[in-house]
Amino acid sequence: MLALGAAIGGLVSGFWGIYPAFVIDGLTFLLSALLIAQIKLEVRPSLAASAKTMAASLQQYMDGLRYLAKYPDILFIALHKAAVSLFMFSGFQVIQVAISEKIFVIGVGGGISLGLMFGVNGVGTGIGPILARHFTGDRDHSLRRAIVLAYLVGALGLAISGTLLDFGTLLFGILLRGAGGGLIWVFSTQLLLQLVPHHIRGRIFATEFAIFTLSSAVGASLAGSLLDSSISISGLVWGMAGLGLIPAALWLLWLGRQKASE
After folding, report:
1. CA separation for the pair 52, 45 (Å, rounded)
2. Most distant CA pair in the chain: distance in Å?
3. Looking at residue 44, what is its pLDDT?
């Protein structure tokens, strides 16, 4: 759906401009709200009877933070989405806009080329976890090791994209970057689902997404600022490829420490 939505958005903005794209996008949110309203959700009695005050909500959130502080392995797994966004995704999304406007311009304002880039990224995020899971299954150690490989694949994709040789090469690099990032996203989520008790799971995911959102804002802001500097687009993308190796190395060190303690 990520690939399909991005591709359609690119085609709409590329052929008719951004304002019709905004209108159609708004209508899709209304449709989404109508569909979500049809979902029947049964709430557990323990949650239904819990306090609904702001203080109670804050207490529940703090319980999640204390759990992460108590179990550093869960904390490190929960940080993967933030690391991917900070080093590989959010900044590159800003850079993609510059690429579509200045280098590979297809459609009005590069809307079609931008949509294709987002669409190919969506394809990568879909096929990456599916292909990798054929080899890892649900095995804990295999999922963890695959995350290291995923960082390397994502960094390789960025390095290839940074060459800016032609649009096809750029799309291939984006496909690899999406495959690596999608694998990290899915496998880190699966590990949390397998390891975190259900009574605290929602609060862990809330914290995970809060950190992810913050890192996305930081990554996008830094990329935007650097685009306004004298650094070339290729240099920025290659720099991101190098930075993407940092979380891979840290995660590999953590895995080695865990294995030594067994």
Report:
1. 14
2. 60
3. 65
Domain ranges of the chain: 2-31+57-261
Cα 148 to the chain's mean position, in Å? 16
Distance CA 94, CA 220 (A): 6
Decide yes or no: CATH 1.20.1250.20 for domain 2-31+57-261.
yes
Provide the residue count of the chain: 262
Local structure of 53: helix, strand or coil = coil
Segment 152-172 shows an average pLDDT of 95
State pLDDT tens for residues 46-83.
Answer: 555 556 677 777 777 788 888 999 999 999 999 999 99
Quote the DSSP letter at residue 79: T
What is each CA distance from 258 to 77, 94, 139, 167, 252, in whole angstroms? Answer: 13, 37, 16, 43, 10
Dihedral angle of Cα 247, 248, 254, 255, to the nearest 10 degrees = 150
Q: Read off the amino acid at residue 201.
A: R
Alpha-helical regions (H) of the chain:
2-16, 18-36, 45-48, 54-70, 72-78, 80-84, 90-102, 111-136, 140-162, 167-195, 198-227, 233-243, 245-261
| 3-class state of residue 86 by DSSP | helix
**Cβ contacts of 39 within 8 Å, gap of 6 or more:** none
Kindly tell me if the per-residue pLDDT of 91 is higher than 70.
yes
Write the DSSP symbol of residue 108.
Answer: G
